[in-house]
Amino acid sequence: MESCDAKATPVHLCVLVHGLWGNPSHLAYVAGALTHKHPDSSLHILVAARNAGNHTYDGIELGGERLTHEIEHEVETLAADGKTVARLSLVGYSLGGLVARYAIGLLYSRGSLDRMEPVNFTTFASPYLGARASRNGVLQTVFNVLGSRTLSMSGRQLFLTDTFRDTGRPLLTVLADPKSIFMRGLSRFKRRTLYANIINDRTAPYYTTFISRVDPYVDLGAVRINYAKGYDNVIVDPDHPVSALDTAPTGVKRLWIDGQSLVGKAPTVALLSLLLPVGLLAFLVHSGIQSIRSSRRIQLHEQGKAGIVPGSYRIPLMIDEVERAVDGVMRDPRPRRTSFVDHHGQPERSLSDDERDRDEAKPQPSNLSSASTRIDPSAPATPPATPPTEPPQEPPETPASSRISHNSRSSTSSVKGPFLSDGQLSRFDHISRDGEMPHDGETSFPTLPLSHEQLGMVRSLDALGFRKYGVHIHDARHSHAAIIVRTDRSSFVEGKVVVRHWLENEFDL
Asked: Could you tell me the pTM of the whole model?
């Protein structure tokens, strides 16, 4: 991409990214609301289309490369029209949030974020921690097994059963690694905001979209939800989301409430019992066909026959890896050792191209965030792209923007202003191997049985800092679609409140 032309008209490029099985029409309301809010501004909206439909089966990596290519092409098109992209924002819905995070890492590594100001990164119902069921049980186990096997590469990545390149870890853990290009790029954005459904999101439940170890909304009859003023009891108060009831229902009253809930669900349960077997069979057949087609697309992409040269995006993933590659090749042309860790943070055996080096220094133990990819000693002295570096700076203020309760550790930190430098991010490298997080007091809600990888991601992402908002959709059972008004339905009207809140409070033009 070309550097900024002083005579060109500066524009703010806002990229909208749809989710799994999605298409640009799913974000039509969001795009229209942006245009309505800023009709005479320099805002230029790109609704990404390269991953539409069944192409979302192809994985976060391939989707991120397509999105990066689409953004770069749009920048070039605008430049040809006498415009230059001065500011950049990305908005991801569902899987689109993960694809956008991958693309941000690529843009960062290619120096694009030095030529435009990263402003807003926002997600709606995006599964930061994957899509695995967060509770133990037979149905949850079946769901996790089927999910990882029926959605091609995207399924394996969402259910954390993949091994990304040669890191030995699932892709999502690499996306959340503080030393990765993905977190460094994300730290550059002025605002990082997420919106998460608190109930009825069976596609991407609260714990993963809110990046949380607990779920205070499992039993709405046991808590009082506090709402932000002026948003029709849809946006949960980020500072005081829930309060304990003065008198929690017990005995007969509790049974009555539970009975009413079961009665209300009875028609849905009966309908599902009739349709589920037929629907499941149809889904499995369709997914099998699409997985085969996806595998073919991935193969063509890797061969450079799908309109993108993948080698241009296959850059080192870790900042220290880039530095070692450049320093090592320039100083010592001999084959160099590289230490590895597996996805549990345990050291693997050292590798060497020279038999003489096999018994030299033992690899040092490493933590979850320090895994690196192999460096090819035969590679050119100059890597495909070298991520920019930032000068050291004082850590920004990180006031908490959401607390589960008055005696629990903040579940998020909000960072405004300057992005975090490499030195500041290194403070968050110590993700423990068991994923446990220190806290100042006992939480009011039990910790969900998340994997150690998921707990590590929570810690890393929360350390980076997000502004988090819970969303309470009352009128639609399918809150995952309602949160962005995916289609024009009367039951999705509460999603318009969500978008309005975002535009009035979180979107910086």
From this structure: 0.73
What residues contact 396, with CB distance under 8 A and at least 6 apart? 415, 416, 417, 418, 420
Residue 54's pLDDT is 86
CB contact set of 281 (below 8 Å; sequence gap of 6+): none
DSSP string, 439-452: -SS--SSPPP---H
The DSSP bridge partners found for residue 10 are 84
Q: In the structure encoding, which two tokens stand for residue 315, read together?
A: 């850059």
- Which of 29-38, 290-299, 416-425, 463-472 has the lowest average pLDDT? 416-425
The answer to whether residue 82 scores a pLDDT higher than 90 is yes
What is the identity of the amino acid at 278?
V
| Distance of alpha carbon 225 from the chain centroid | 26
- Residue type for position 138: V
Q: Which pLDDT belongs to residue 346?
A: 43
Query: Does residue 302 come out as left (phi exceeding 0), alpha (psi in the -120 to 50 range) or beta?
Result: alpha
Q: How many residues does the chain have?
A: 509
Instruction: Please state, rounded to an integer, the average pLDDT across all residues of the chain.
Output: 77
Which sign, positive or negative, has the C-alpha torsion 218, 221, 223, 228? positive
Residue in this structure with the two tokens 């949960």, named with its chain if needed: 236
CB 145 within 8 A of CB 159: no
CA dihedral (460, 134, 123, 20) in degrees, to 10, reads: 130
Going by C-beta distance under 8 Å and a sequence separation of 6 or more, which residues neighbour residue 379?
325, 329
Q: Where are the alpha helices (DSSP H) in 313-396?
A: 319-331
What is the token pair recorded at 7? 């005579």
Helices 251-302 and 138-150 pack at an angle, to 10 degrees, of 20
- C-alpha span between 314 and 308 (Å, rounded): 12
pLDDT of residue 335: 41
Residue by residue, what is the 3-state secondary structure of 376-403? CCCCCCCCCCCCCCCCCCCCCCCCEEEE
Residue 309 above 50 pLDDT? yes
Q: Which residues, other chains included, contact 93 with Cβ-Cβ below 8 Å and sequence gap of 6+?
A: 16, 17, 18, 19, 22, 26, 27, 30, 123, 124, 125, 126, 484
* Backbone φ/ψ region at 307: left (φ over 0), alpha (ψ -120 to 50), beta: left
Helix (H), strand (E) at residue 16: strand 9-17
Contacts of 102 (CB under 8 A, 6+ apart): 60, 61, 63, 64, 65, 67, 175, 182
**Three state DSSP letters for 44-89:** EEEECCCCCHHHHHHCHHHHHHHHHHHHHHHHHHHHHCCEEEEEEE
Burial of 87 (0-12, 13-18, 19+ CB in 10 A): buried
